[in-house]
Amino acid sequence: MSDVSPLSETLERKGLLPFAAPSYWLNLASEDYRTCRRDENGVPLDPILAQALPSAAELIDAPLESEDPLREKEHSPLPRLVHQYSSRLLIRVTGACPLYCRHCFRRNLLPSEREFISSKEILQAQGYLKEHPELREVLISGGDPLSVPTEILETLFARLREARPGIFLRLCTRAPVSLPERIDEALLSMLRKYKPLRLVIQANHPKELSGLFLEKIEKVLAAGIPVRSQTVLLKGVNDDTNTLETLFSGLCRAGVDPYYLFQGDLARGSSHFRVPLSRGLAMYEELRTRLSGLEMPRYAVDAPDGAGKLYLPESVVSRQEDEQGAYWLLRAPDGSLHRYPEEA
Ligand code: SF4
Fold first, then answer.
1. At what angle do helices 185-192 and 150-163 cross, to 10 degrees?
2. I need a labelling partner for 272 at 20 to 30 A (CA). Which of 22, 129, 204, 262 fits?
3. How much distance in Å is there from the Cα of 237 to the middle of ligand 1?
């Protein structure tokens, strides 16, 4: 066994994100996770392992980092519910995931939220939906909602639809890339009953688009469920235009619409993954010259002070410097200005 277990146990003792990765995921890597090469911060060089294996770099608290970088707690009317955008409600149905991604922006919230949503909480979500007619869409999120048994998910979906027939459901999951076997016939026949429904996955590297992934995506699409993807820009994983070009064109060929490329959030313990925004902007410009409109995702960042999603480069006002270093001034649609640091 490598040093994964002792570090994972230390992280777990501190209430931090432990190690969890299906063998399917570890087998996508080019190196054995027990003996893989690592950089000077202990982060694996392999892009698959870098997303999965804990490293001592996670114990670093960088300035401006937060346990809750999107300030979801401030928009949480009830446990598990986040109502940040007026038309959308997000439900965190569990903090469990088959793969604990080291870069996850909820990395500091997940360990304490591993239980599945309870019957009482499902009824609370239903009640909230009834009381808020402005809601048009419910995001089923987590953790990974596909960690939750299909029967519990179906109960939730049925209650939501009872409250608001036709409400749009968005299922946000990494399972198609982290544990494709979870996409089984029982799940597909359940999902088929709850259209309009969209699957939004996260894919960060072309190695994630395995034969099994492609097969499962084909089944989801054949069930009449459109699939979109989000990608997080990650240092050492996908921060070069060739990798991103291959990833986005591969997703598009698989029938998955590239939706967002996210600049890294300021989640505590994730500074080693963040790519300077100037570099991200330059890569995005380069991608525009290489990818078709269908292959091209939108580049965006979540404002570190909870002001929501800002598009890049559209929201950029200027790059400035003060005693804390260089930062970018970004303008939100309501005209408010927000700082995002150039370096981690
Ligand atoms: S699967 Fe999603 S919620 Fe879970 S650790 Fe990865 S990014 Fe975070």
1. 0
2. 22
3. 16
Helix H or strand E encompassing 84:
strand 81-85
- Band of residue 3 on the pLDDT scale cut at 50, 70, 90: low
Q: Which residue has the tokens 């313990």?
A: 269
Q: What is the pLDDT of residues 61-87, one digit of tens each?
A: 888 889 999 999 999 999 999 999 999
Ligand 1 atom closest to the Cα of residue 17 is 5
Mean pLDDT computed over 204-231: 98
Cα distance between residue 21 and residue 99, in whole Å? 4
User: Is residue 172 marked as binding?
Assistant: no
User: Does the annotation flag 97 for ligand binding?
Assistant: yes
pLDDT digits (tens, 9 = 90+) for 6-54: 888 888 888 889 999 999 999 999 999 999 999 998 999 999 999 999 9
Tokens of 285: 């410009």
Q: Which residues have CB under 6 Å of ligand 1?
A: 97, 99-101, 104, 106, 142-144, 174, 202
- Residues above pLDDT 70, as percent of the chain: 99
Q: Is residue 104 part of an annotated ligand binding site?
A: yes
For the stretch 149-163, pLDDT in tens is: 999 999 999 999 999
- 276: phi then psi, degrees, rounded to nearest 5: -55, 140
Question: Residue ranges of the domains in the chain?
Answer: 65-318
Closest to 47 (Cα-Cα) out of 240, 193, 192, 190: 240
pTM: 0.95
Helix (H, G, I), strand (E, B) or coil at 322: strand
Phi/psi-derived region of residue 250, left when phi > 0, alpha when psi is between -120 and 50, beta in every other case: alpha
* Termini Cα distance of the chain: 32
Which atom of ligand 1 lies nearest, measured to the CA of 97?
4
- Rounded distance from Cα 105 to ligand 1 centre (Å): 8
CA of 279 to the centre of ligand 1 (A): 25
